[in-house]
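## retry 2 of 3
previous attempt timed out at serialization; input unchanged, resubmitting
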Amino acid sequence: MKYELFVSDFDGTLGTAPDIIEPETVDAIKKYCAKGGIFAVCSGRMMASILPICRKYGFKGIVVAYQGAMINEIESGKNLFIGGLSTDISAEIAKYFLKKNVSVIVEIDDVMYYSGSSRLIERYEINCKVKGTRVEDAADFIVKNGRTVQKVIGLCGPEEAIRITPFLQERYAGKAIVNNGAAVLVEAVSPTCSKKVAVEFLAKYHNIPLDKVIAVGDSTNDIELIRGEWHGVAVGDGREELKQIADEITVPYKDQPVKYLLEKYCL
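## retry succeeded, writing output
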């Protein structure tokens, strides 16, 4: 077994909305774990969305949500780590989205709040199998709530997302990681609890050397996932920005990249 820890993104890598993983991929994961391998999902989704998926398919161990801002045990649900953006930074980003007439989602303590009603909000709830609470002004709500924000999301058309993302990346460089989990999402998370930090956490927790770790993803919110001292893999039909920094480009999603990599390196 070349890699003792296998870390996978969910949407567009391991599975698809709302909670579908191909049976052949599930079988490969179970064979890998039976051989002593550790399999972990590292998703941008809320814990309330990704944890039930892990349980549905009988995965054990640890799951990462919010691109690294929340880490829980799958079976017990016990929280092992929680972090996020500061109140001022998250409120500023939410305020910017609102000024641009972009629907805003704010995720705090695994609860979804949103400002603005749109088909994109409805689709997000359906795809993630969660139900949000509407608030009048997301930025004002963040300030009044006073809690650490796991993620701030702006939902808009793909062209608007392309314009907004680099502006926010430059404006909040070092203060927030801004990326796109999907073409219609502009996501902001804390650089102190990124997918990269999550992989390091998982490796340390399981006492596995980083050169025995493989991580795979498909989107720009997976840049931190595959950019580390481990083997980073981009899905074949993933984002070009990810493929440019990957150690390896594997098969497209339709060919079950997680199954393919497990069979190539671990089974």
